[in-house]
Design brief:
Strand content: under 5%
Order of helices and strands: HHHHHHEEHEHEHHEHHEHHHHHHH
Enzyme class: lyase
Number of strands: 6
Organism: Lederbergia citri
Pathway: Amino-acid biosynthesis; L-arginine biosynthesis; L-arginine from L-ornithine and carbamoyl phosphate: step 3/3
Distance between the termini: 55 Å
Helix content: 55-70%
Family: Belongs to the lyase 1 family. Argininosuccinate lyase subfamily.
Bound molecules: arginine
Largest sheet: 2 strands, antiparallel
GO molecular function, one term: argininosuccinate lyase activity
Radius of gyration: 31 Å
Strand order of the largest sheet: 1-2
Oligomer: single chain
Length: 456
């Protein structure tokens, strides 16, 4: 089979070597971007009198035809054409004849593939951002319904202080807000056209890079042709932003997995997001949450893989860079799938308010309340801490909680304690009184909710 670059070769590779070098099995995902880039390029060639206008139009028409076929899933790719670029060039020539061979004037696969990748990520990052917003809305919704749902807040996975469940949900809202911001910011560096850098050095033809950039909807062009073809920072950045986002998802996934266990019993997942066991009839497993926790592994792996490919690569294009694609595609699919599933899971989960509240009535997470109460009465906080610590120990020995101690026993520990302590010690009161800015107090959570809503 004759190669597009076969002129200086007298011998061809065996099929298995060709297969190893080919990228068509995966870069066909760039088919529409590649055609779009070619249409812009050939229009520019015609407009700049680099090729006759009628030929440019003929080529553009052929490309439009290929686009229709691509959308209908009618294109047949072949390994011997190596990649999406050469496959399409061959198809174009078959479609319109030898004039199709003029398309590649003043262009290289190096700026072509970089252009495809920029176009692809520009689209996909927007889709991912949309999905982040949807997940944020789902969290916001659960938060709105649960401002006054009190449940244990943890540090070290030990009961710490009671909090509003809405506050917990909103913590993830803000995490995702930062993720959204990172993707949004990365757009500046995705939205640049490498087209016209040609192989690495620019071209002798009087091309118009600004025209093609405008045709393709890019805001600017690379200033340096060598940078243009060798830059994959925008891919690294995309993978890094994805890795951090899915790390956030995996943290919430872990909490959901814990919360659905009998030990916590704080939420129940909708049946659609759980599965059973083939042997244990009672099981309801939080599979989707586990899977997303697991998928963070491949997304982080894709980031590390890409950085490793780039490390030590000399300028400009190197075939190593063909390895930039599978991780990127995989990350796009994994992120969209995970975000969609997560949104549905959060939307449909049932919050068990009663179980949550009864949990905080059976622990020492109101101990800080008592220490604060004493500190407010003028006892140095460090001493108050010691007094309460001893009371907790007494409770443990007597197998009860702080609210079970009679007033005289409390007063024995500290004479400043009065009848009003019992109100202070109730977990609901503890949450309500944490009214410092950004705290879990119901009023603060409501303010936070309003701010969050304005962002959606
Ligand atoms: N399939 C190649 C890739 O994905 C396209 C660029 C090839 N360029 C070259 N000079 N061999 O990286």
């Amino acid at each position: 089979m004759k190669k597009a670059w076969g002129g200086r070769f007298s011998k061809s590779s065996e099929q298995w070597i060709e297969e190893f070098g080919a990228s068509i099995s995966f870069d066909q995902e760039l088919v529409l971007e590649d055609i779009e880039g070619s249409i812009a390029h050939v229009k520019m060639l015609g407009k700049s009198n680099i090729i006759p206008l009628d030929e440019s139009e003929q080529i553009a028409a052929g490309l439009h035809k290929l686009k229709q076929k691509a959308e209908a899933g009618e294109l047949q790719y072949s390994i011997s054409e190596e990649d999406i670029h050469l496959n399409l060039e061959k198809m174009l020539i078959n479609e319109i004849g030898p004039v199709g061979g003029k398309l590649h004037t003043g262009r290289s696969r190096n700026d072509q593939v970089a252009t495809d990748m920029h176009l692809y990520l520009k689209k996909q990052v927007l889709v991912i951002m949309e999905h982040i917003k949807e997940l944020q809305s789902a969290l916001l919704n659960q938060a709105e319904k649960n401002v006054e749902t009190v449940f244990p807040g943890y540090t070290h996975l030990q009961r710490a202080q009671p909090v509003s469940f809405a506050h917990h949900m909103l913590a993830y809202f803000w995490m995702l807000e930062r993720d959204y911001g990172r993707f949004e910011d990365s757009m500046k560096r995705i939205d640049i056209s490498p087209l016209g850098a040609s192989a690495l050095a620019g071209t002798t033809f009087p091309i118009d890079r600004f025209y093609t950039a405008e045709q393709l909807g890019f805001s600017s062009v690379y200033e340096n042709s060598m940078d243009a073809v060798s830059d994959r920072d925008f891919v690294v950045e995309f993978l890094s932003n994805s890795a951090l986002t899915i790390t956030h998802l995996s943290r919430l996934a872990e909490e959901i997995i814990l919360w659905t266990s009998k030990e916590f019993s704080f939420i129940e997942l909708d049946d659609a997001y759980a599965t059973g066991s083939s042997i244990m009839p009672q099981k309801k497993n939080p599979d989707m949450a586990e899977l997303i926790r697991g998928k963070s592994g491949r997304v982080i792996g894709n980031l590390v893989g890409m950085l490793t490919v780039l490390k030590g690569l000399p300028l400009t294009y190197n075939k190593d860079m063909q390895e930039d694609k599978e991780g990127m595609f995989d990350t796009v699919h994994t992120m969209i799938g995970s975000l969609k599933i997560f949104t549905g899971m959060i939307k449909t989960m049932t919050v068990k308010n009663k179980e949550m509240e009864s949990a905080v009535n059976q622990d020492f997470s109101n101990a800080t309340e008592l220490a604060d109460y004493l500190a407010a009465k003028g006892i140095p906080f460090r001493e108050a801490h010691e007094i309460v610590g001893k009371l907790v120990l007494t409770c443990i020995q007597q197998n009860c909680y702080l609210l079970d101690l009679p007033l005289d026993q409390l007063q024995e520990a500290c004479s400043k304690i009065e009848e009003d302590v019992f109100v202070i010690l109730s977990p609901r009161e503890a949450v309500k009184r944490r009214n410092s800015y950004g705290g879990t107090g119901f009023d603060q959570v409501k303010i936070q909710l309003e701010k969050a809503k304005q962002l959606i």
